[in-house]
Amino acid sequence: MKILKFGGTSVGSPERMKKLLDIVNPTEEQIVVLSAVSGTTNSLVEISSKLLKEEKQEATTLIKALHQKYNEFVIELLPDVDFREQGQEVVDYHFNFLASLVNDLFTNIEDKVVLAQGELLSTTLYHIYLKSIGVPSVLLPALDFMKIDEDNEPDIPFTTKHLTPLLERHKDNKLFITQGFICRNSFGEVDNLRRGGSDYTASLLGAAILAEEVQIWTDIDGMHNNDPRIVKGTKPISHLSFDEAAELAYFGAKILHPQSVFPAQKYKIPVRLLNTMEPKALGTVISTESEKGKIKSIAAKDGITAIKIQSSRMLLAYGFLRRIFEIFERYKTPIDMITTSEVAVSLTIDFTDNLDEIVKELNSFGSVEIDRDQSIVCVVGDFGAEKHGYAAKVLDSIKHIPVRMISYGGSAYNISLLVGTENKVEALRSLHDRIF
């Protein structure tokens, strides 16, 4: 069985939703994971925000506007009167529910329920559309088998235990539809997967049933070897290892959330990134295998702040770094890059809400310097310890650009460079020209 995930733009209009059958094959065993129709989740977030603030009139106006959009969506998606009535019933049910929340007590629990409505709508409407054209399918409620534990981590054994009987109950069917993003938490309440959303759902389902492969369908033909919005002549990468893909996703490749492939990686399920606009394009395959001895891609992450702590007390001292890291741990602030010398340590963060408090505590160790508006440029490929010449090639490519920090050797898959954000575009283009 294959898992096929389609994002919001792939179901963003009735026409797009109908075209999914150019890709979905009802004669093959497939679970189709759908996101909410594009724009819906943003609207639901806005509605929920108004309800939390008790701005009831504004929330009602937003609910009515979104309801009208779905009324029009149903008319175009389902021309047959009988099936259109079914679709309209579904839409009215969900929006009557949203309207009922306006005068009730609204908490963070209801907030999660509101956010779930988008996926519940898109999957049910697609299921009705398939029925209307005679294509058999089964709608699987994700809330019956997707669960996170008390640490907000997905419970894959729970999914396997509860999804497998559902699939066996419908042995005569090959096409299944379910919701991305939504799940239940350890209390049984409606919740969501947060990190990676629907991609994460697809990867978790692939792991839970040991699928043949997971396909992530977007509007881009795979991961590119540089940012196509900035650099001309970029090309899709045919093959990446899971580790390489995670590095690229973390450092700026927006096509994929860095944690969304971890379940597939753990269970060795290949992930294929494909383009709904060009279904025949090869895309990018992410698996345990990778081409050796090759630089694959370049990505960049903005919004970085560099912190340098200099202190003679660090010389030959043990426990110094631990005490510094404990400060960041207390303020729940992740560190991206780190470099050290005998008397100084430099590191980067991208979450700066607690920066003033962090700096105040760091001042007790020595002098502290802050550099804002930095970018991490990450070069990903096969940089194993036995390889030679790659680091020199990367550094030579940007010898005309000031570099604030360099991280090499922490991973066998990347070289990370910290540059001022004003130099990011030049760094990406120069690296691309010299390397590719």
TrEMBL record:
Location of the Aspartate/glutamate/uridylate kinase domain: 2-275
Segments forming domain Aspartokinase ACT: 377-433
Entries under InterPro entries matching the protein: AceGlu_kinase-like_sf, ACT-like_dom_sf, ACT_Aspartokinase, Asp/Glu/Uridylate_kinase, Asp_kin_monofn, Asp_kinase, Aspartate_kinase_CS
One GO term describing the cellular component: cytosol
GO annotation terms (biological process): homoserine biosynthetic process; lysine biosynthetic process via diaminopimelate; threonine biosynthetic process
Positions with a binding annotation for substrate: T41, E119
Statement: the UniProt record of this protein carries the keyword Kinase: yes
Pathway assigned in UniProt: Amino-acid biosynthesis; L-methionine biosynthesis via de novo pathway; L-homoserine from L-aspartate: step 1/3; Amino-acid biosynthesis; L-lysine biosynthesis via DAP pathway; (S)-tetrahydrodipicolinate from L-aspartate: step 1/4; Amino-acid biosynthesis; L-threonine biosynthesis; L-threonine from L-aspartate: step 1/5
EC number: 2.7.2.4
UniProt keyword terms in alphabetical order: Amino-acid biosynthesis, ATP-binding, Kinase, Nucleotide-binding, Transferase
GO MF annotation list: aspartate kinase activity; ATP binding
The keyword Kinase appears for this protein: yes
Residues involved in ATP binding: K5, F6, G7, G8, T218, D219, R229
Catalytic activity annotation: L-aspartate + ATP = 4-phospho-L-aspartate + ADP
NCBIfam families: asp_kinases
Family: Belongs to the aspartokinase family.
PANTHER family documented for this protein: ASPARTATE KINASE, ASPARTOKINASE
Name by which UniProt lists this protein: Aspartokinase
Organism: Pedobacter polaris
